[in-house]
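Hey,

Quick one before I head out. I ran the complex with thiamine diphosphate overnight. Inputs first:
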Amino acid sequence: MTSTAPRTVIQPDGAAKPRDVGLSDKELIHAYRTMLRVRAFDETCLKLQRSGRIGFSIPNRGVEATQVGAAAALKKTDWLFPSYRDFGMALYHGISAEAMMHNMYGDALDSAKGRQMPVHFSFTDPIRFFSISSPIGTHIVQAVGAAYAMQYRKEKHVVLASFGDGGTSSLGFHSGLNFAGVWKAPVIFLCQNNQWAISCPSEKQTASDGYAVKAEAYGMPGVLVDGNDLLAVHQAVSEAAERARKGGGPTLIEARTFRMGGHSTSDDPTKYVPKAMVAEWEKKDPVARFEKFLKKRKLWTEKQREQWYAEAMAEVDAASKAAQATPRPALETIFSDVYATLPAHLRRQGQQAFDIAKRHGEAEAGDGAFPL
Amino acid sequence: MTSTAPRTVIQPDGAAKPRDVGLSDKELIHAYRTMLRVRAFDETCLKLQRSGRIGFSIPNRGVEATQVGAAAALKKTDWLFPSYRDFGMALYHGISAEAMMHNMYGDALDSAKGRQMPVHFSFTDPIRFFSISSPIGTHIVQAVGAAYAMQYRKEKHVVLASFGDGGTSSLGFHSGLNFAGVWKAPVIFLCQNNQWAISCPSEKQTASDGYAVKAEAYGMPGVLVDGNDLLAVHQAVSEAAERARKGGGPTLIEARTFRMGGHSTSDDPTKYVPKAMVAEWEKKDPVARFEKFLKKRKLWTEKQREQWYAEAMAEVDAASKAAQATPRPALETIFSDVYATLPAHLRRQGQQAFDIAKRHGEAEAGDGAFPL
Amino acid sequence: MATLTLIQAVNDALRTAMKNDPNVLVFGEDVGPKGGVFLATEGLTKEFGEKRCFDTPLSEDGIVGAAIGMAVNGLKPVAEIQFQDFIFPAFDQIVSEAAKLRYRSGGQYTCPMVIRTPYGGGIRGGLYHSQSGEAYFCHTPGLKVVVPSTPHDAKGLLLASIQDPDPVLFLEPKALYRSVKGEVPEGNYTVDLSTLRTVREGKDVTVICYGAMVPVCERAAARAAERGIECHIVDLRTLYPLDEDGVLEAAKRTGRVVVVHEAPRFCGYGGEISALIAENIIEYIEAPIARVTGFDTPFPNTLEHHYMPDERRVLDAIEHVAAY
Amino acid sequence: MATLTLIQAVNDALRTAMKNDPNVLVFGEDVGPKGGVFLATEGLTKEFGEKRCFDTPLSEDGIVGAAIGMAVNGLKPVAEIQFQDFIFPAFDQIVSEAAKLRYRSGGQYTCPMVIRTPYGGGIRGGLYHSQSGEAYFCHTPGLKVVVPSTPHDAKGLLLASIQDPDPVLFLEPKALYRSVKGEVPEGNYTVDLSTLRTVREGKDVTVICYGAMVPVCERAAARAAERGIECHIVDLRTLYPLDEDGVLEAAKRTGRVVVVHEAPRFCGYGGEISALIAENIIEYIEAPIARVTGFDTPFPNTLEHHYMPDERRVLDAIEHVAAY
Ligand SMILES: Cc1ncc(C[n+]2csc(CCOP(=O)(O)OP(=O)(O)O)c2C)c(N)n1
Ligand SMILES: Cc1ncc(C[n+]2csc(CCOP(=O)(O)OP(=O)(O)O)c2C)c(N)n1
Ligand SMILES: [Mg+2]
Ligand SMILES: [Mg+2]
């Protein structure tokens, strides 16, 4: 689409250019294993959805390098304002597959208390992984407010806001980038251009020459990077983060990649994605590409991969079993957290819900007394 | 603000470059006289507001060349989606000072039936001068829809959407330019950068290098033009219109100018506009600049100016007197035009309003029977 | 007459309108080749070309704003908002612009357009794929708000909305998309936008409802009948402007009223119905005017079956007012 | 205690909050050097610097969206929307985000923030500088909606709103900005966000109102008193969550109720009040529950005095229900 070529680090032969990729061997392996865990989580969720165990999932195949490369450039004291397709960012930073799985099941141990659809994660520990919202783009400008707070308190932290190509058409993109530019806020805007917004291809999303060029409209640097090259994404995000920590303001990064699956488990991409395009991108698989690099560095063997993948699968399986064994959220979770304190009218409505549930012998009602 | 210099046509000595300015002598004089009429209208409204005859006005001083230059590039079959500070566009195309004055008074002959604040004009004849809305930016994307309709019917007309520097931060700007780019809609976006959005200076509005550069984000040409140079504005809009008529799609034009007065009659600009800035721009007066050009073409003398200005004043005076002599809108105008047909509940509410007015002997109620 | 699901009836209405009037355009997110996430627009791009049925960028503000401009300039846009929950970025365009244009321009400019959008719960969509926002729009003079509950009405009301000279918000109960079927006439016909539909006659309790709550109320009424309570059910269909006379008439019949909707109760649509009755015919009313609604919380996910009014809650209310 | 106008009380509240808590920030369009179009923020940039009181780009979506992010990350933003009519571009951020964040994140993220905005008619502002949009927000669980009617309450309610752990929409009746004066304590104090205020006691008719309608109702009550009708007036102050017990208590006192607001009637806030009463204490009610409201049209300009409820219309309603 764009005339400019995206930045890369991993060369066709697997060599890195520059050689110093800014990540230790340990970190490189952690990044790689995280990608395997994303795949394991992704594939498991697709299966769970097909078998009716969970209601919905969002395929992550194809975009793992973008997520993990970006996450690897951040510290635990930074904040993430992620999208629903960011399994890798959570896993990289130590959010457990089990915590995520409780969300997929919407059970009593889900940190969002079963209120949101699957993949709408929300975590505060070990990194601030901000509560995901369905409305596209709203979080982009919120991220700028969070970054302003860091700037105001003179902290050296940054915020990463992650969104899709479709997200660039949203209101939050426009106001977010505009405010960030004026405020020189320490925020990195990561546009994961996976070429599709559900069924809408990029050429119907915008007439601009890619997405990185949109940075100029907001007076900030725009960087186009190969999103299937974990190290290139890491490099671009690291540079942007360093600039932001030093007071240099925001950056827009476009990571060009491809969504190999459907938009979600409700979507049939064969209706609109040209087969040739899928075949083309299949060859650019981000995991295989990173393996080539690792192999050249002697950090990878096929056997090692199998072991790691088996471990990832075991972890995800255990997570899924744990979630499955967890009951539904308690009935009072319908009424709590609307406000810090339960107002009188919600106490009345809650009691009503308990009365009905009790009358009909539904387990959630316990003794029928509203507990809040 | 911008590193690039704005396009000009009128040189410091009054010569035009290129010599062929694309307007006949008759049109040049009409454009000039329109600027004088804008001034007359503007000054009269300020006086009427100060004396309490009208509630509100919007100073146009300083931006006349942008308005009139742009208007002169359009045909009567084109559409205008103007802003509240576009007196010149209306006057140039034959909307009478009297029609405008009825709006300033909100009287029974106001084409908007006294429902809107002053300066919120709405006309359909002799040109489509779209109903002005207070919310900033909403009309920008509406203009794109109107342009799509032209394209759909294969008409060779264009739409001009006019808005301020502040308007570029609005939602309608982002969605409007984005949709227009994708649709290649025949629309010209005219950003009148008068340097202020009420009290907000451009550097707090955006970090971009001016406003024309925002075009790239939407895949369209961006043109920076000297807004105090009527011919430069005319040239830029003419080029954009020609491209649009040929199917070449939209253009964003930034006309750099300066708002010499307050934002509105409710505003005190001395609280925030640096004096030096006003002095600097005073020297760039767009009317004086155009006079220099006309004089060089032997189309202008001081005496002629005086006569034309007196005529403009007489026209505006007469308009104001006519409006003043016009009664308020009829009471039923509160209830009509909510829908094409008056629904039952509004008939009841209308009758109630008439009953009260009648009981209190208010003239608008007539015999107290709701007439719709 | 064919037997269609509600979503098929919507599709049929769009196809009929596009056939009859070349100015009718359909657009929104994923409505083109994909045919819409619920398949409301399936086949339309193929049949009418991509100038008439097409995908837009991801901006509801843009979709509605552009639709207004098209309508102003002679087209008949029928815009889709993918879920009603995502209409809020377009709220300004709807409330400040579409609703007020005729008025503020003294009738010089108008925008006959339709915004279609699926609303309501029942698909485990959580906070953002389940909401019922009708009250936001019914407080906005200049708009019309329409909600069908049967395939027949879905087609007839949608065709009437497309032919209407004013902007119409057409809310489709997504829970009924495939769960109700009914006979739908072929070709063009309209259902009047100013009269409610009597679903069932009864002398004991009047139940006022619309959209996805209509079948819920019907089931509750069937159970009430077993207990000797005869319900009179009306389906409002056009929520705004409302058939007020029809509502008052129905309420007078029994003097006992239950109003049902999915949206939160506080400042919900049901409040207006109660208020109308309490203001105009209180002398006929023999029991508290009951409301059965969603709770005043965001819409939950796992526990949505406890959140949404169901036939048990409606029945409780019917019995309560009947016994009063 | 100083005697202040309502707008001075707002300014005083902001200054007090900023002095007490370095995390309190004030921003919006023209709130910096200009001091706000109504001068609510006058002097704050000078006193607290432009990191704490500053102008933003012209985007309400941006103002509210950024405020949410600040609140999430430890600040106490007090954002101004220049006119309530211009809040709609931020509707999505308010309704989908601020209101639902605590809930959807299971309480992990919260946004204690205040959005202040002038609302209502009376300044010849026409369609877009006169609206009263409270009903849109009071239908949104997770939000609080507050409307003062006196300088004392304006300061105390605003300080309470700033200290509140949840997002508060603070609607300021611009018609009262300079037309009411009253004693205002110095320094920090709060007015509770969950109780209404009894403005006047009476045994014949209960008048329920808020904001700019309070003085209108007081004048109507004074005239009713001349005719031997004693009104009981309550000023709701916090519209959402509402002091429902207080409302029902006030309504029971007289059994005759008039609800007054400026916004259009249909699906307006008054409908909820009528419905609450008709649902919970209908046995106490002896007359139609009357509403006096703006008409169901956009807000006109030249004829706004015919549009807005005035003491004549309120008096008519009082007499009507008193005589029933
Ligand atoms: C405001 C809004 N409109 C529409 C939707 C429905 N929707 C969900 S995801 C999506 C496409 C998003 O595409 P993109 O931003 O490219 O992200 P991707 O899914 O490709 O990662 C749409 C239209 C939504 N969630 N929010
Ligand atoms: C959505 C919205 N927000 C705020 C306002 C209040 N307001 C009126 S004019 C204005 C500034 C507009 O500046 P600009 O776009 O540069 O136009 P100019 O007045 O300079 O011609 C503002 C903030 C408004 N009318 N609409
Ligand atoms: Mg995408
Ligand atoms: Mg300006």
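The radius of gyration of chain D is 19 Å.

Talk tomorrow,
K.
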